[in-house]
Amino acid sequence: MKVALCIPLSWDYVPTLFFESFYRLDLEGLETELFRGRNVLIDRCRNDAAQEALNWGADYLMFFDADGTYPPETVKRLLSHNKDAVSGLTHQKAFPHLPVLWKCRGARKAIVPLDYQGLVKVDLVGLAGVLIKREVLETIPKPWFELTPEYGEDTLFWMKCHNFGIDLWCDTDLIFGHIHTVVVDDKWQEVPKLGEIPTGLKWKKMDNRGQNAV
Predict the structure, then answer these.
(1) Which of 17, 34, 134, 190 sits a CA distance of 20 to 30 A from 207?
(2) Domains of the chain with CATH codes
(3) Are 112 and 198 in contact (CB under 8 A)?
């Protein structure tokens, strides 16, 4: 099995905490290669790394962000779920450090934190620590990742996935650190209940090409 380790970087160094966690990943028995993309824009970095990974023949693409920390079992645990797209759980850097884990609800489909436990189907996570089957990228038209004034490249990517019937899952028991002045994880705050903190972000409908519908 070929797993591409994709780390989009627009600089030439990474935090020590990320390096240490990356070094300790359990990759035994897997054929792996590192792809980073080289561009000052994060969406282009992701697209470049993803294309290089597909050209290499990757069966899976494992995305890491360099401002995160990841348990040694990350890759093999996510592989064991056998999902098209599956992530662990990251918390936001900014106080009150909410989970980067969202579920759409209501007519306006505002995105709100999900009351979670175990492996759950979700609508949106970040792209740090997410495992994606190559078939997902072969299904979605390019560019896979797009950064706009309204949405981040992660949000738009998951919108496209949902538009093509691709489910997203999150293993909420697989906790990633988020490097700031401290490492933010699930022990920093009591997780808010579903619906307590709406963001007002609207879930935009797309046409069958993954583009914004008129």
Answers:
(1) 134
(2) 2-184 (3.90.550.40)
(3) yes
